[in-house]
Amino acid sequence: MERSQIQEVVKNQRSFFQQQPTKSVAFRKETLQKLAALLKTYEQELSEAIQVDFHKSAFDTYTTEFALVYTDIQETIKSLAEWSRAKRVRTNLMNLPGKST
Question: What would the pLDDT profile of 54-91 be if each residue is shown by its tens digit?
Fold first, then answer.
């Protein structure tokens, strides 16, 4: 990619980011639940593809791929509200007398 193309991509990404409001915790939880359901629906097909591509058994695929993702999704759903809460942080000396939130 040339520099001008990269600059255009960055400009478009910034514009998109500024136009979209932050998604609610409920929306993010619902999206994660849909992801888990989608993985479960296609688990067999994905496992077969991994077996063909990487010669990994179904058991190995589940224990080293799917189980980890399912666990991460559940942990994220459980902790999302806490992680999304606003919290005050100290302002470092370089930025005084500013405020940090």
Answer: 999 999 999 999 999 999 999 999 999 999 988 888 88
25 within 8 A of 81, measured Cβ to Cβ: yes
How many angstroms separate the CA atoms of 101 and 23, rounded? 19
Q: Are 36 and 73 in contact (CB under 8 A)?
A: yes
CA–CA dist 100, 87 (Å, integer): 9
Cβ atoms 99, 91 nearer than 8 A = yes
Integer Cα distance of 66 and 57 in angstroms: 13
What span, in angstroms and rounded, lies between the C-alpha atoms of 88 and 81? 16
Using CA atoms, how far apart are residues 48 and 62, in angstroms rounded to an integer?
11
